[in-house]
UniProtKB/TrEMBL annotation:
InterPro entries associated with the record: Ribosomal_eL30-like_sf (IPR029064), Ribosomal_eL8/eL30/eS12/Gad45 (IPR004038), YlxR (IPR037465), YlxR-like_sf (IPR035931), YlxR_dom (IPR007393)
Domain Ribosomal protein eL8/eL30/eS12/Gadd45 residue range list: 115-197
Region of interest (Disordered), ranges: 1-32
Species assigned in the record: Caenispirillum salinarum AK4
Biased segments, Acidic residues type: 14-27
Name of this protein: Putative nucleic-acid-binding protein
Domain YlxR: 31-106
Length: 232
């Protein structure tokens, strides 16, 4: 899964102008993307707020005070909003947008996933190590729920593990060092989340899969982003 490259912006009216004209944030379950103008359930969008110093900050938990600025959850949407000054238009004030805002959002998403992996480890619901993972997968009683594989792992090793559990969801979004840090070791290439004691691992695995899909979705090019007009 890869992130997108440079985004070119069309010379079209900004839907954020309409958003910014609203006196107050809508009270219903839907919100309007400040780039596309599409109204969709707010739980599917990324929320941003303007801090007291005027800086735009991401609010993944949707809990920070202030009027929300909502965006479709894709990296290129944030890049577009920055280039078109959509945050300032929607907020109807001068704002400061960190140049690395798309990276900050991705880092927060990654942190969410890795924290859940760490919680599963502390709940006794993670087995790590090539041989230990293979042994566990051969024992169906262990209840494997999610496979974890470092994205920088050797392909042959990953294939051997995958072959033992082809129907178990696989998350391969993180480097070995990141997985290792989440699991309390220097490096981890292969791991598996199991149901664990009292099913705690299964609950955490469902949350992990949801957050991992959000992260993968964030990296994909947005189908809703208007195509750029070619300049002479």
């Amino acid at each position: 899964m890869t992130t997108t490259g440079e985004t070119h912006i069309p010379d079209a009216p900004d839907p954020a102008d309409e958003v910014g004209a609203e006196a107050e944030e809508p009270t219903g379950p839907e919100r309007k993307c400040i780039v596309t103008g599409a109204e969709v359930p707010k739980e599917t969008l990324l929320r941003f707020v303007v801090a007291p110093d005027g800086t735009v900050v991401p609010d993944l938990e949707k809990s920070l005070p202030g009027r929300g600025l909502w965006l479709s959850p894709r990296r290129d949407m944030i890049e577009t909003a920055v280039a078109r000054k959509s945050f300032a238009r929607a907020a109807r004030r001068k704002v400061t947008v960190p140049p690395d805002l798309p990276d900050r959002v991705e880092a927060l998403m990654r942190r969410r996933c890795l924290d859940l992996i760490g919680l599963a480890r502390r709940a006794g619901a993670v087995t790590a190590g090539f041989e230990k993972v293979r042994a566990l997968l051969r024992d169906e009683r262990q209840g494997a729920v999610v496979l974890l594989a470092a994205c920088d792992a050797a392909e042959d090793g990953r294939n051997k593990v995958r072959a033992l559990a082809p129907d178990v969801p696989l998350i391969d979004l993180f480097r070995g060092a990141e997985l290792g840090a989440a699991l309390g070791r220097d490096m981890s290439v292969h791991a598996v989340v199991t149901k664990g004691p009292k099913g705690q691992g299964a609950t955490l695995a469902r949350r992990l899969l949801d957050q991992a899909e959000r992260l993968a979705e964030y990296r994909r090019p947005s189908p809703d982003l208007p195509k750029a007009k070619r300049r002479a």
